[in-house]
Amino acid sequence: MGDKPIYVTQPYLPPLEEFMPYLEQIWASKILTNSGPMHQQLEQALCDYLGVEHISLFNNGTIALLTALQALRITGEVITTPYSFVATTHSLLWNGIKPVFVDIDSRTLNLDPAKIEAAITPQTTAIMPVHCYGHPCEVEAIQKIADNYNLRVIYDAAHAFGVQDDNGSILRHGDLSVLSFHATKVFNTFEGGAIICPDEKTKIRIDQLKNFGHVGETNVVAPGINGKMSEFNAALGLLQLKHVDYAIDCRKEIDSRYRELLAGIKGIHCLNDAGEKRANYAYFPILVDENYSITRDGLYQKLKDHGIHPRRYFYPLISGFSMYRGLPSAQHGNLVAAAVAACQVLCLPIYPGLATSLIEEIACLIKA
Ligand SMILES: *Cc1c(COP(=O)(O)O)cnc(C)c1O
């Protein structure tokens, strides 16, 4: 392997000179934030690209999650997955909400709809599923349960930029969907995020909440936060959007190459082949089971020794962290499939510019 460490992702950056005209516009306008022209253009461009009606930009995905819960006045208990990044449930704690963990489906690693009903109590007000690795949740089954029990559904769609199902954007499901534009995500604005809103009224409320709860010049109607995306980040988004299809195409090729090269290795399983579906290839998770020659952590270490740094997303489970493990729903027996996945998963490097020779060497190391 070369001298440089190979990480699981490398942020995509368009040529720097393409960014200069955007900076010149910002410098000329002297509008740096507070829903300026770049912000407005990016909201429109993202609606067009994603095929959604309303979007509200944020300074990051975590503040967007916090605000999504606040906007819908979610209280009490919210059903969610332990197999995610910790921001998912932190957003609940910040709103004084009790997370209730439900196990995942071991085939999709998403919240298992068949296990949701048993976790519903009179305090339950919403479900917060995650489209893990950008693979769509069983949105119809989840909506059916939500309708039966009068629950809201807020998707943590941080991994799901550009993903579609048979009817269009996956982001149109549920009451709200929340995106992250962090540097490590498929579409990035360095830091950033967004909420997909179903109607104009909800967008206006969310726009107010991300601006301290201000309504007009002289009135404040809620304890809102500063969730605004700056003009600099919005400009980055406008530029990135021009290149995102290219970036996703590159990821798709890497995904197929891994699948070819890793096929038939005993104890190694590639997850959810998107096939012809519009996916984003955000991650390339493999499961390493007991039929493989060494343990998952053994393989993790072996790759690291060769300068390759895969990630064990999501190990440990959120339910294992100190501020969550006392919850009744965090007990191991309640989350068996999630616990198995956390011990088997390894996310391999996938990003535009990852050399084919490196993909082959990684596959060779896994095979040997
Ligand atoms: C990245 C991520 C977030 C948080 O997004 P930030 O923009 O980094 O705040 C939330 N949930 C999931 C599942 C994520 O992967």
UniProtKB/TrEMBL annotation:
Coiled-coil residues: none
Family from the record: Belongs to the DegT/DnrJ/EryC1 family.
Pfam families for the chain: DegT_DnrJ_EryC1 (PF01041)
PANTHER family cross-referenced by the UniProt entry: PROTEIN RV3402C, TRANSAMINASE
Source superkingdom: Bacteria
Protein's name in the database: dTDP-4-amino-4,6-dideoxygalactose transaminase
Residues at the active site: 185
This protein's UniProt keywords: Pyridoxal phosphate
Any one biological process term the GO annotation gives: polysaccharide biosynthetic process
Molecular functions (GO terms): pyridoxal phosphate binding; transaminase activity
Residues the record lists as N6-(pyridoxal phosphate)lysine modifications: 185
Gene source species: Paralcaligenes ureilyticus
The keyword Cytoplasm appears for this protein: no
